[in-house]
Amino acid sequence: MSRLAPRGAQISVLYSAKEIEARVRALAADIVRAIGSEPLIVPILKGSFIFAADLLRALHEAGAEPDMDFITLSSYGKGTRSLGEVTIMRDTEAAIAGRDVLIIDDILESGRTLAFAKDLMAARGAQRVMTCVLLDKPGKLAVDVKADFVGFECLDRFVVGYGMDVAHAYRQLPFVGYIER
Ligand code: IMP
Ligand code: MG
Fold it and tell me: Which ligand sits closest to the CA of 85?
């Protein structure tokens, strides 16, 4: 299915709102089984904010009582190519030591963002660090990292929607899609 998105681009749907909803519910059940019912959820902003909000409510439905704090990391400038170096734009506030931490990100691509966040939480004394990504882009890893929970495999295309952007546009789309070339 193809939809005309704002700003004139033609966006093809990769994962619909319905597919995402069902997958998020299944992920929440897996997560509660693996990490227990009182994790500290740390979404990596900005791209994961819609996924994290849906997952948080699904975790509630699955019986969990998570805490949540946020970190803003950046490896992209305004473009669609990773700059390779991860920087903290805004840090967490919660105490990390002794917690079971679940890091949430939108996409695992080179792995640099997720590896950076995992190392950071471990260095701050987390009891356990697990990771969950909505999308995994296979064959793109530049560092040795693996997500414990994955929503979907991702095409080797630049995707937008459901919180994800290109140059700050298209986060509002309720589905994950890619821009037609
Ligand atoms: P990595 O550090 O190379 O694994 O890149 C992961 C980060 O790059 C994610 O947090 C995303 O925000 C961003 N990213 C990677 N691919 C895409 C994409 O196709 N669309 C939007 N953001 C992306
Ligand atoms: Mg990101």
Answer: 1
